[in-house]
Amino acid sequence: MDPADILSTIQTAIAPVVLISGVGLLLLTLTNRLGRIVDRARQLATERRTASTGEIPGLDAQLVILGHRARLIRLAVALSASSVAVIGVLITVLFLGLLLHWSLGGTAVILFVASLLSLVGAMLVFVRELFLALTALDLTLKQPPA
Question: What is the pLDDT of residues 24-46, one digit of tens each?
Fold first, then answer.
């Protein structure tokens, strides 16, 4: 195979890596949010142990919301990671197809669409988690001062 063809093959196969970088930043954001949720849940659980009887329902409500948010973030992380995994398979398929002159256009399209659908799903779950975060903030702001 001509070196120019090999270079062209590598360039074509590597193009989806840009998508991996973007999803990587999303994963960083999601894992940071998950860490903050876990920290806040631990803090509230500690506060609950020493809280008066009247404060416990509010703390419990916040803990329920934090649990739900953590599950949503976990799902968003799983969908994002799945998107990256499918992109990795896509890159491999593109590279092998171009290198070995296989006709894998349909497979590549299916993998690309699957990756994007997974990414869109992750973003929708992320937006849902943001709405829950605002619900938790509303609960905090509505609590009477101690």
Answer: 999 999 999 999 999 999 999 99
The pLDDT value given to residue 9: 66
- The sign one gets for the Cα dihedral 30, 34, 36, 37 is positive
Planar angle of CA 136, 142, 146, nearest 5 degrees = 110
What distance in Å separates the CA atoms of residue 132 and residue 71, rounded to the nearest whole number?
12
For tokens 């991996």, the residue is 20
**C-alpha span between 41 and 98 (Å, rounded):** 50
Task: Give this prediction's pTM.
Answer: 0.82
State how far the Cα of 29 lies from the Cα of 135, in Å rounded to an integer.
Answer: 20
Please spell the DSSP secondary structure of 99-141, one letter per residue. HHT---HHHHHHHHHHHHHHHHHHHHHHHHHHHHHHHHHHHHH
Residue 83 belongs to what H/E stretch? helix 56-100
Mean predicted lDDT score pLDDT of the chain:
88
